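From the shared-data thread, chain only:
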Amino acid sequence: MGNEKEEKNISPTEIQTLIAGIFPNTRYFDARFDLLQVQIDEMKFNQNLFREELKEFKREVKEGFENVDKRFDEFKSDVDKRFEQVDKRFEQVDRRFEEFRKDMNARFAQVDKRFDEFKKDINNRFIQVDKHFSEFKSDVNKRFEQVDKRFEQMIGAIDRLTDRLEYRDRDQRNFTLRMFSISIAVSILGVLGAFLKIMGVF
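Structure, as tokens:
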């Protein structure tokens, strides 16, 4: 009976000592769990920070690409405007070249027309020259025919004079020959004067 009383009168200190003897000390585990929790919190914080930095990087990259797209659009617009200006310049050059070509064609047409008129005028002049030359040739032929007739008459007269001179003396013959020579010279001068008059010298 005395032992039963002793077992019932166990103090709380003894109970704690008993529990401490049965279960190991948990402070080490608590410290380890606290350190692990701190590390986990740091990892979460680092993950959140990395996510924020990644979002910021994505935003910056997006803004950079938007700026690049904007600059590319501005560059494309500027290039299009420049090409439009170049096209307008080429259109102006083509228009001026077309006007120049039309003007040159008109000028050449005028030159061709003047050349045709000049050619026609030259042909008319040559026709007139041919006509005048034919008339001049016909007139010269008539004049030479007249000269031939006169020479024939003079030869006939010479023959008659020769027949007469055979019966005269030598002095009369010389006188007659001189007169004959003078008459021939005068006739030749007359023919030559008529020829020069026809030629327009006098």
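Residues 11-167 form one domain.
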